[in-house]
Every structure is written in C-alpha cells, then in structure tokens.
Amino acid sequence: MENMLFKYGDGKVIRILYINRVSSIIYVIDMASNRWAYPLKMDELRHFQEQSEIILLEEDIYCRIVIEEDLSDAEKRKREHAWGIVKYILDNVVTEEHLYLSKYREPAIKEAMQMFKLSYNGVKNLLTRYWHGAQTKDSLIPSYHRCGAKRRDRISGNHKRGRPRSGERGIGINVDDKMKKIFKQALNRYYYSERNNSLKITYELMLRDSFVKDEVEQNGVKLPVLMDKSQLPTYQQFLYWYKKLNNPKKEISKRKGTRVYQQNFRTIIGDSTQDAGGACGSLWQIDSNVFDIYLISSMNRDLIVGRPILHVVIDVYSRLIMGFNVSFESLNSYSGAMVALANSMSSKKEFASKYGVSIEDEEWPYCVPLRVMADRGELVGKQIENAIQGLGITIQNTPPYHADYKGIIESAFSVMNSRVKPFADGVVIKGKGNKERGEADYRLKANLSIEDFITIIIKCVLFHNKNHVLTDYVLDDLMIEEGIEKIPIQIWNHGLRHRKGKLRILPEEMILSHLYPIDQASVTARGVLYKKILYASDYTLKNEWFQRARIYGSWKVNICYDPRDLTCIYVMDEGERGVLKLTLLDHLMKYANKGIEEIEQVAKHEQKVDEKSKERELQVKVQLFTEIEHIVENAKRKTDSERDYDKSKTQRLAGIKENHRNERLLHRTSELKRTSVVEMPTASEEPEEVTDDLSMFFNNDGDYDEE
Known about the structure:
Blueprint: E1 5-8, E2 13-20, E3 25-30, E4 38-41, H1 42-50, E5 54-57, H2 73-91, H3 102-116, H4 120-132, H5 177-191, H6 199-210, E6 212-218, E7 221-226, H7 235-245, H8 248-256, H9 258-264, E8 283-290, E9 295-296, E10 304-306, E11 309-315, E12 321-327, H10 334-345, H11 349-353, E13 371-374, H12 383-391, E14 394-397, H13 407-420, H14 450-467, H15 477-482, H16 488-498, H17 508-515, E15 518-524, E16 527-530, E17 533-536, H18 538-542, H19 545-552, E18 555-562, E19 565-572, E20 579-584, H20 596-642, H21 649-653, H22 656-679, H23 692-695
Parallel strand pairs: 8-13, 13-14
Antiparallel strand pairs: 1-2, 1-5, 2-3, 3-4, 6-7, 8-11, 9-10, 11-12, 15-16, 15-18, 16-17, 17-20, 18-19, 19-20
C-alpha cells in the first residue's frame, strides 16, 4: 500500500509513493537521500521480501506528528507557502504517475520556478520533503524542532548574552529566570487588561514597581528613585521577551474581550450547506445527552455519583452508531465529544474486550469522516481547529434551536433510554427532579457503576447496528434488488460496495494526539505523575527518566489521555518516537479501567473522611496531652515528696549503672510474681493462700500494687 516503509539489510529505507497496478510498477523514494523517486517492479519487491532482504517497518518514524498550537507563526506561514508550491505542481500534471516521470515532471517544475521565483533545487527539496513525510501537508513544516536547544533558554552567565550595547550605556544585564518572572508579572498586571496600556507604558510601570533603589519625599509624597541605568533592563530586552512569551489569543481576549476574538480573529471553519453525500463516512452527526439513570462509584459502591453524559456518533448514510463516550463531564464538554470521535475513528475491538464483550472490526466498523455535524455546543471554538487541520475534517454546525437538523441522533437517545430504563434501578421516574411527599427516592435504588453502564451501552449499540430495523429508511432500487434489509450494518456494507466515496483511516497515535484531551504530567523520581497517579513504561525505564528526575529534579511533559480510562496515558514525545504509551504502576492498579471523574469523586470522598478523622484525632490528641501532663505532674509531686535534698548532684549521679541493674532485677521479680499469682488460683482456691513472701507486692484488695 502507499506510504509503506521497507528496510534493506544495509539499513536503507524506502517508502512506496505510487502503485501502477496495470504495469506492476511501484515508485519508491530513498528516505536517506534527496534523489528523485525511482521505479521498482512489484515482483522484484516481493522477491526481496520473500528472501528477507527487506522487511516491512511497522512504525513510521518519518511521519511527524505535531500539535497545531505548538507551531510558531513562521512555521505555519512557511508550511502554507510550501504547500501552495507543491499543490501547484500536483495540479499541473495530468496524472499522479506523471509526477514521478522526469519528462512530465520537468515542465511543471519550470512553471513553478517562474511562478514562485524559486531555484530548481528549491522545488526539488519541497517535493522530496513532501514524499518523505507520507505526502501530507504537515511534512512541509520546517524542521525548526531539530535546530538548537529547543525550548531551553541559554544559561545566563557572567557575560551578557545578545548584542552588546553601543556608546557609553554600559554593558547591561542578563535576563535570568528572576527577571523573566518580573516581565510576566508586569504583562499580566498592566498589559493583559481592559485598560489597553501600551507596551511602553507597561515597561515603565514595571520599572517603577521592581527597580527602585530609594524614595525621596517631596511635598509630602514619596517619589521613587530608579536604579542606575546599567542595572535596568532595556525596552528592547522587554520587547524581545514579550514576543517570546506572548500568546496572541490571550492578548486579544484580555484586552478586547473573548467575544471580539471569537468574532473577528478565530479561524472560520465549517460548511453547513451540503447533505450527507450518499456515502459511508461522508457525514456524521454527534450530540450529547444526560442519561435518565443514576450511577454509583465502582471504587466505593456506597457512593452515588449522579447521572452520566452520553455522547453518540452516528453515520448519516447508514444510521450505524460509529462510537460513543460515557462520562461525567458537562453536557457540552469538548473532551467528551473528542473522546467519542476518537472512539468512532479507531478499532473498538480492544475497547469492548475491557468490558467482557468480544467483537471483530467487521461487526463495528470505523473510519475517519469527511464531515461532522454538531449543534454549536462542544464543537465550536478554537479547540476543534487542531483536529480539523490535522485530520482533514469539516465541521457543520446547525443553527440555534434547531434540533430537527439532527433528527437521526436525537431519536437515537430516546430509543437508547427506552431499552435501558425498564430493567435498571435508579432511573429517573417521569422526568421529575423532586419526589413527592411519601414517595421513595429513586436515586437511592442506584446499583449500576459506570463500567456496568458502559457494558449495557455496548450491548445496545451492537444490537442497533446488527439487528435494529430502520422502519422509515428508504431503500434504493439496487438495495431492493440485492435483498438488503433495513439494518444499519447491511446498509453500511452495501454502501462500501456500490456507493461513491471511500473510507479513510489514519494511525491511531495521530487520532489520539488530535482528539484526546491534552494536559501536562510531571516526571518524578517515583514515576510520571498525573492526577496523583503514577505511570511508567519500558521506554521510560530504559532511558532512565526517573533516575534523571531524582538527580536533576522533575520536569513537565505533554500528554493526552482517555478520560474514560486512566489505565494508560500517552506522552507527546518531542523526539522521533511520536506518542509514547505509559501504563499504571502495579501497586496502583486499583485505578485501572477507572475514569477521571470517578477517580476525582473517590478522592473527594477520601478527603472528607480524612478531614473527619483528623478532627477526631485532634480532639483525642488534646486529651492525650492533658493526660500526659497530669501523669507528669503526679510523678513530679511524688518525686519531690521522696527526694533527699541533702544529697549533692555528684551523689545523685553516682551509681546509675548499679541502680539500673537493681531496677531491672526488681522489675523481673515483680513480673514473675504477677505471672505466678495469675496462674496459681483455681476455682476452689481463695486468694488468701498466697504466700507471705508475695504479700508485699499486693494491696489490701488483693490486687497487684504498681507503686
């Protein structure tokens, strides 16, 4: 298949770019050189593979996975410019195969050279970069991440960094971490505000707040006196770090308001004028709804955790439920929708097996859609733009108050509720929020955990896809001729065979990096810490992450995670490995298969229990202090009454070892006597039979006298 990687025995790696199945010619490119793509016979490649002279590489380390928000403006600008040149060449060849033949490729390159004022090697470099990067737009991003010490500031030393000052203004100062902190505080206080102060004013107010050496009183007012000029950061230094630290979105939102940013500065996306297109995977609908059932915690089944949010994704053409997500997020949660989309775009085989359901991919298909229709909730805003550009998805948003635009998925929620409510406990009765007087509270009957509920939803989805009859679905002539039933999976399979369009799939790591919620975790000496849970992997142990954290201190890493299941998290590695999968440590497996909301709820419950225990502990501890103090006072009073004050300090300190030996013997004797007394009496014996030798250890009541 196209974009496959093969490795020769000598280490050479090639990528398949194009396959002519008529002539059995395959065009490949050498990943380690800048030469043009060249042809190979399909039989020749198969022979090499059969003889084990080449092997198929499962992992594509040449396809760069990027986070759109981490790209600089220069990287985005250069990518768009390079893509314009490559697209111009692609549009100026008759067929894609002509791009790999020099007699057809050269005229297109010459036209591009004239159009974009580039050299021949410049155009060639862009094309080879495009081919090396799996023929994706992101492969044209400049490789700035390979240059210098990325995200590491130069260490400030004795010599000033940067251009030296001119004239007699002194050497200047270095901007260290302390100085950068002052810059950030000044920007947050004076620049990112509705007052719209200029950068110059912000700089001057910063000097007044942080670089004053003295104050002078004038007319009853204390006026600040700035430090010497050589001790002050220059405006150019402040401007440089502003450009490096500034977030344009934060700047516009704080100075002009979020509404202005969303209205005038965010990327315009989506197209709601097209229909489904009559093909599988052409258009999906996504929505969320609060399910009419109360759940309990799987970690402490005595805790009622409330009603779950169910996100569902449906293919419009076939009515097939592509995926879903159950969470306790808010109704229009971005992360809930993104996890539902990720579930729809990847294989559910492993997902279903976690809940004891065995399926094959043919029973529950997956693909990457062309368009997704939502209702101006979770899929509106900046957050979704990364997924759109990275995965090639168009978002269509319905107008406000028009649920009828997504009637397919709206009806799916009512059907799902109707299948679960007759059999489950803890369901909402008649949609009431408050019970009447004397009526039992249905919330107290809850007995399903989120794992139980997800298992039920999986069963319902499989029933819908494989058995539910779509009464109102209109079959076309070909469907009727082939005897297709109005069942989603049959319509889907028919669409794959006969309808236009094609399914798209992408690497699971790319889907996760674009759709899963992104956060930061800390690499510590005990593991990778996220939400007070520790993770590790063979890669982290092999590369001594935790040893380095113990020696040099912890650091942050970007991660993405599945909110439904924190058994694993995925580190967005800055190197060439792409996404690293980390797993829970063995002693924390109690959190396996648990969602982030459930873990947080249990943590809050444990915190409340700890607070009550600490309150009781404090009360008992105060009583303990009083009892100890009382015992000490009694001992002090007894000691004072028996102490011989005529003895000197030397006399009192003499013979401590001998006193210690005598006290030890006395303690042994008393313990022996007490043991003998406990064992001696029988049912017929009286305590008076105790010998006179032991009477000295007992009081008048016959009990052992500790004094």
